[in-house]
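Example record

One chain of 467 residues, shown exactly as stored in the release files.
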Amino acid sequence: MAEERFPGARTPENAGSAPPDDSRWESGASVSFRPSPAGDQSGSPPPARPSGPPGGAAGTAPGGEGAGQENPGPLKTNRVIRLAQVRRRRNARRLRLLVGVTLALTLALAWALGALAPSLGALSDLADTIRIGLTPGEGFPVKTNIPQILQLEELSGGFVELGEQDLVLYSASGAQLRSIQHNYSRPALAAGRTRFCVYARSGNELRVESRSRTLYTKMTDSPLLLCAMSQDGGLAVVTRSARYAAQVSVYSSSMEYLYGWSPSDKEGTPCLAAFSDSGKKLAVACLKAQDGQLVSGIYFLDTEKTSQPVSSPEVASVPLQMSWLDSAQLLVIYQDRAAVYNALTGEEKYSYDFGGESLLSASISGKNAALLFSGGTGTFQDHLVILDDRMRTQADLSPEGEGNQVVCTRTAAYILEESAVRAYTLDGEEKWTVETSEKPLALLDAKKLLLFTGQQADVLQPPASSN
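Predicted structure tokens for this chain:
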């Protein structure tokens, strides 16, 4: 399939200008017609015939029946000429009418395709969903053949898994939908509900992919820093800038330019970005060096307005993760604290201080966050804390094993150990433990809870003795 390129970022002040219209007709255009071809004598008068033979030998006798009557030949010829002219004028009017109707239909179709582009994209996603539903897979486990997982994202109940050279896409029923060799040196993913973007950090290329094909390809003038995708397929592209700290460009699901922001050195360089569920707001975390330490701030962009973003107070910490709790609240996990911000004002509403503990892993799901702190060496145990949307402690416990990673879902928190997975309720009660033959590498909350070990993905099932 031929790849479609979408236009590069434009400056915000040109966002409202319309592209040049190359399809309009020049004024004064007319339609010309060729004369009748040789051999068609309907438009030429026939040669005059003599009224009688030379000398009048064969003519009508004077005073006879034909005396005083005009020869009918010229009258018939003039009638034929007039009929031919009327026929040509009628055909010309019909042709002009046909050309006008065709032009009007063409312009109406072009307008409709532009106006309905988002709907056409939704129809394409729906067609993919129907096709995938009619050709289900054989279930799990599946062999992904990705030796090292760089990134893992849920996609329409299935998943997209990124490796150093390849990425694979599976449906919720375990059917392999696509396998792509990207060959990026520093690859990264940004995923929405039914599509994703794969790009190269510090490179100049990004691709927007659906579950069946490549939708768009873009070459950027400046190196890419990061990308973020909304649930409906909108895309935020952050690149380096010669004049500013960076350039943030926001595109619609049909890759039309919507919004731009150029953070200066005062704001810092973007290191994280996240869309709200509606896709209308974008949170950008910026990082800068100040007085010998790293300082960060959160900036809230409204992609439907051209006003300057709302900013939060700066903190002397590095942001690691952030997620929208709702359309007006953002949760940010820093190196040494967690905080909830009001997206309308930038005000910090709630916070949780880590108290000097070393954060090993963090996970956000819905309105809850799970924090796993490292116990270090010796007799110190790991420490698990589960917070609600007001940064209040829901659970505070010391797991029995030594964990490597924590994954939070809407109903439980899971700790991945060297050869086991432990499940806890959100209020801290241990539910069960599953022993694994290989080291658990990742756990994904898709349509089913999927555990990745080695180069394989399987459904995580609680032990039979568990309730």
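Notes: The first strand starts at residue 142 and ends at 143.
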